[in-house]
TrEMBL record:
<feature type="transmembrane region" description="Helical">
    <location>
        <begin position="30"/>
        <end position="49"/>
    </location>
</feature>
<protein>
    <submittedName>
        <fullName>GlsB/YeaQ/YmgE family stress response membrane protein</fullName>
    </submittedName>
</protein>
<dbReference type="Pfam" id="PF04226">
    <property type="entry name" value="Transgly_assoc"/>
</dbReference>
<keyword id="KW-0812">Transmembrane</keyword>
<feature type="transmembrane region" description="Helical">
    <location>
        <begin position="6"/>
        <end position="23"/>
    </location>
</feature>
<keyword id="KW-1003">Cell membrane</keyword>
<keyword id="KW-0472">Membrane</keyword>
<dbReference type="InterPro" id="IPR007341">
    <property type="entry name" value="Transgly_assoc"/>
</dbReference>
<keyword id="KW-1133">Transmembrane helix</keyword>
<comment type="similarity">
    <text>Belongs to the UPF0410 family.</text>
</comment>
<dbReference type="GO" id="GO:0005886">
    <property type="term" value="C:plasma membrane"/>
</dbReference>
<feature type="transmembrane region" description="Helical">
    <location>
        <begin position="61"/>
        <end position="81"/>
    </location>
</feature>
């Protein structure tokens, strides 16, 4: 159980880091914890989108690239909110 959570945190960090590198916007959330949270949230979002659209079955999760795409979606939403 602990190794699963550790894997989620590590993959979330690298997915969030890669998404932040691709977007490179100074208004994006910064810091190690926020980057990790961004990756985990992106993976959860893309898993949900994938299950709704039929890309993933019940119990399947987004992989690393899905987490990066989900993180980019989260960053786009963050930019829309932070412009106001």
């Amino acid at each position: 159980m602990a190794s699963t959570w550790l894997g989620v945190i590590v993959i979330g960090f690298f997915a969030g880091l890669l998404a932040r590198i691709f977007s490179s916007n100074p208004r994006d959330p910064q810091g190690c914890l926020l980057t990790t949270f961004l990756g985990i949230l992106g993976a959860a979002l893309f898993t949900w989108i994938g299950q709704i659209t039929g890309m993933y079955g019940q119990g399947e999760y987004a992989g690393f690239f899905g987490a990066v795409i989900g993180s980019l979606i989260v960053l786009a939403i963050w930019r829309m909110i932070s412009k106001r």
